[in-house]
Amino acid sequence: MTIDPSRTVDRRRVIQVLGASGALAVAGCLGDDEAAADDGTDDENGDDADETTDGDEDDSTEELSSLEPGPAGESLSADDIGALVAAFDDQPMNEAQHEIDGENGSYTPRHVWKWVSDETLIGLHFDEPNPEEATALDYITIGRKGLFTEESQPDEEFTHFHQHTADSWEGGHGGETGDEGYWLTHIAVREIQYPFHDESIDARVDYEFMPTPPEEGSDGHDAGWNAPDGGEGDLSDDDRDELLEIFDDEWTNEDQQEANGYTPSHVWKFVTEDVLMFLHWDEPNPEEANELIYFGIGVRGQFDADDVPAGQHDDFTHFHLWEADGWEAGHGGQDPDQHGFWLVHHAVRPLEMPWGDVEVGVDREFMPTPPE
């Protein structure tokens, strides 16, 4: 352990990070004179130091973890983007909307897609019309089959309707009442500004994304129609394994990687230094998963109400510490100084969870950990 003498050492903070068992190591790192002064071993400060370290209040703070930021992530590399584009290889729109020709395939502008159930798909929205030429990810996307009606719109986060069959990509936006297509949620993963934004936005659920409001009071919902590619259905084992290879980042300490080297049910991929996207599966060991149940993002922050991304407390319901004794111990925090990630979970299929039935959409009841 090396101490930089040019930095001011906060002994109490160091003890909090190391835990009570690390207190002796602190003294050995500071040097005899500084350790003695900081420990309050002189007559004038000795009693005060004893009161501080022996009090009940300090006993609780010594057990806190995650008091320093976790390791920084990295933006997606060209290889990462190439692997993602190859893995998201379904075509839920008709050929006339595949307006972008790349070396490896044709694409709907900026988007690649993957079916994850009979009625839902996930997608990635890049910064360039040709996904093969993208340098960054702008959004993750979740879509549900339906009709262009108010009844069929799942919830407010599904701001945009897109027809599965149209003469062009632009022609697929919105439609006539009763048209078949997909209701889409877009969750921004970095600072961006599109024409439909009044100003730039940070990572968040984008409730302003290309709104296509349906006719007020319009009835009807049908998801029984067939997509142009006929690709509806759950991910295959090969699809799952390909995604597991790509989502290969870990941001927690090893004690939380309890499921065959994974954090239980989750795999992660950083898209910027401070934002990651994740897949949440139906089994603790993702290699044994049968179904994807959530797609979401995490944003680095502290356990403080003011640090909830974009103030979206109803969406980013769950905070998780980056450092803890186990996965369960990482849920929530005890102090605003603790670091971790704020997570938004978007269900990709109807679920029965301990907190109740969950429909496709942002799960606003997902394991809430509100700061006090």
Total number of distinct structural domains: 3
Judged by helices, strands and strand pairing, the structural class is alpha+beta
Task: Estimate the mean pLDDT confidence.
Answer: 87
Net shape: globular
The level of helicity is 10-25%
Main beta sheet strand tally, sense and closure: 6 strands, antiparallel
Distance between the termini: 35 Å
Region (Disordered): 33-77, 209-238
Biased composition (Acidic residues): 33-62
Tell me what the structure shows.
- This protein is an alpha+beta fold and 372 residues long.
- The protein folds into three domains: 11-62, no CATH class; 78-205, no CATH class; 237-362, no CATH class.
- 17% of the residues lie in helices and 23% in strands.
- It contains seven helices and 16 strands.
- The protein has helices at 11-18, 23-30, 32-39, 43-54, 56-62, 78-87, 237-246, and strands at residues 100-101, 106-107, 111-115, 120-126, 137-147, 160-163, 180-188, 204-205, 266-270, 275-281, 292-302, 318-321, 339-347, 351-353, 356-358, 361-362.
- Strands 3, 4, 5, 6, 7 and 8 form a six-stranded antiparallel beta sheet that branches. Strands 9, 10, 11, 12, 13 and 16 form a six-stranded antiparallel beta sheet that branches.
- A hairpin with a 4-residue loop joins strand 1 (100-101) and strand 2.
- Helix 2 packs across helix 3 (32-39) and helix 6 packs antiparallel against helix 7.
- The two termini are 35 Å apart.
- Mean pLDDT is 87; it is low at 1-61.
List strands and helices in order, with pairings.
Layout: H1 11-18, H2 23-30, H3 32-39, H4 43-54, H5 56-62, H6 78-87, E1 100-101, E2 106-107, E3 111-115, E4 120-126, E5 137-147, E6 160-163, E7 180-188, E8 204-205, H7 237-246, E9 266-270, E10 275-281, E11 292-302, E12 318-321, E13 339-347, E14 351-353, E15 356-358, E16 361-362
Helix pairs in contact: 2-3, 6-7
